[in-house]
Automatic annotation (TrEMBL):
Entry protein name: Xaa-Pro aminopeptidase
Recorded GO MF terms: aminopeptidase activity
Domain Peptidase M24, first and last residues per copy: 234-377
Phylogenetic placement of the source organism: Archaea, Methanobacteriati, Methanobacteriota, Stenosarchaea group, Halobacteria
The entry's keywords: Aminopeptidase, Hydrolase, Protease
Region (Disordered): 166-186
Amino acid sequence: MPSGPRGGDALDAALDDRDALGYVFIGRGPDPTLRYLTGRGFDTTVVYVRVAGESHLRVPSTIETPEVPGVAVRIDDKPAGKAAAAVLGSEATSGTVLVPQTIPHDAALHLESAGYDLASTPVLDNACAVKDDDERAAIETVQRAARRGIARAAEILADATVDNATTTDDDADATDDDTAHTADDDGTLVWDGAPLSTERIRRQVNVALAIEGVDAAGATTVDVGGRERSGETTPEDDASAVVLRADDPVVVSVAPRGRDGYRGALARTFVVDADGGWERRAHVACDAARDVALVEAGPGADAAFVGSEIRAETAAFGFSPSEEVARDVGGGIGLSLCESPPLDGDTELSAGNVIRVRTAVSDPENGRIELVDVMAIDDDGPVFLGDPPTSLDPAAWSQ
């Protein structure tokens, strides 16, 4: 599993290439880039400086001085820009300093007033985009947990029964379910003695993720695919909780975080009793577009072309590319859900990239069908991590 700081070699190469004195990063709280640079998370703003082949960290006195392997850590309560300038000043009082585009304005002003010329660089974005073996293993571990979380939702939906009888509010209150409605619509799903709601599934999925030792990260969602519904929500408890029907396309999405901070991403759409109409066609389109990613992605492939092919394949099944096909088709994933390379930018894929691949079709009357996977780019081509089932039938997950 990942341990210790990363990115030092990439920073040194960038500094040599630009004839720069050093690199400065200001991390605020649990910043993914700061975790990449130091191998750990923080609850406050800290200053990272790379100069003369060495990493320096300046932290406020409000926290206990951390021990970071290979990093010189000291207490410094000066403003971040001044703390960084003090480290740089041990080498030179002027020169070019590389910084990310997101450097805080006040820190930039302090560095410039100290005599340094700032130049932005994407070096860390590029470095984070290529995962080493430990990072890849960490993402695979989280992705296995994500699969078990989705499997729990599939199990519940497969076990649910259809109840067309009326359930009173008093009966529903007795179930400890926070979606106490009148279940008198045809096709209402019942599980464990009560109407099955999106919120009940979400809680069960999060329990499964916790058992796997990962943090749900507040990213677990369960909805009816965007289909417009009325009279079935619970505004006093959770306006998003909806009682499900057998013909609902239920989109279950998770993006858990592992112990080392690395993320996974997985989404599946289930229909307990599909009628073979819109949702079937939309699912075939999304599944086909997912397969296109396996064909087009690979070392040397143009990332934007892969993204456009995913959208084009989805639209080929008769869906409007401007209104129904999702624009977000994914991009890099690691310590953050959104990293390089994006699948809509001028970037070339390379071995070591790990990418979130999303295919989705939405319609205001019929709902949404969505599939999300994590793909790793290997030397010999792409592969979906875990490669879980894509079927609309939740029972397929138990086969």
